[in-house]
Amino acid sequence: MDAKAFLKELIDIPGVSGHEDEISRVIMDAFKPYCHEVRRDTFFNVYGKKIGNVGHKGPRVMLAAHLDEIGLMVKDIDDKGFISFTNIGGVDQRILLSQEVIIHGKEKLYGVIGAKPPHLQEKGETEKAVPMDEMVIDVGLLPDEVKKKVTIGDLITFKSPLISLNGNMVCGKSIDDRAGVVMMLETMKELDKLVFSGEVYFVATSQEEVGTRGAIISTYSVDPDIGIAVDVTHGDTPDAPKDETHAMDKGPVIAVGPNMHPKLTERLINVADDNEIGYLIEVEPGLTGTDARSMQVSREGVPTVLIELPLRYMHTTVETLNMENIRKAARLTALFIASMKEGWEECLTY
Known about the structure:
The chain is α+β, with helices and mostly antiparallel strands. The protein folds into two domains: 243 residues, Aminopeptidase; 88 residues, Elongation Factor Tu (Ef-tu), domain 3. 25% of the residues lie in helices and 26% in strands. It contains eight helices and 17 strands. The strands form two sheets. Strands 1, 2, 3, 10, 11, 12, 13, 14, 15, 16 and 17 form an eleven-stranded mixed beta sheet that branches. A six-stranded antiparallel beta sheet has the order 5-4-9-6-7-8. The longest helix has 17 residues. The model has no long low-confidence stretch (mean pLDDT 94).
């Protein structure tokens, strides 16, 4: 399966934080042809272990990209059958009105988040954003039918399949960070073309959107020598600060800052330069908000780097990505891992 087809499959599968059973099973199946061992834990973290193809000792490397997505949860059902809801993860409530959603109740129900028509709004209402607690979902059923099929606490996901735009651009929901999972699979394929040593653990982590919890658990379990976090960062848009966004056609983004090991990051940049792989630099002066934050401080500490994919309209249903950046990031990551030969420890010392 090629990268775009795999991404399309992944974003259609529900996997709201804390409820990643189904998506984790699909990822396990995708990892199996390229790994020596695949497993998952009780928190739905998926581990794919790939063993080096040469004898000398290399590092234990862990890649982490999160498989969970933001979503909603049923909060109440009123006497007319309208469903109120709350969020799981950082949902941008400005985009909620008029969205198509799927309620995962006793059966799958399609619904819409409706709004009072402008014709019926009071003066000034059209100028204000509607807060989430004033929105409801309409599934088009009578109240008794809704209450038979929907329970308080049921999950709600957005209906937004992958759409191909012009060139290599695609858009859809939960590309953050299903694109990172696709990138890990492409890295496995790239490693099959290279000579490398040691062990590589590809971990699709759970519950990142609610506090990088899966990375905390999985990094402690793997106990890696080197960590590579894979996530998205902000792509350029006309209304966003230029120093906080990145071009969509210049390659992956390499983060620099205290969350990332400086010598290891320098090596990553050198590998990109030596192999003429385009990249951009992102300055991260504090916590990155990615799995890197938890990988770095696991156990005695893990030297970590962060590779990011520029993404427009993050945490909306039209997240937009350049698929070419997945290919470049995978190639860079595989070459970086293959560069860790005997004596690799020297790249961590000053």
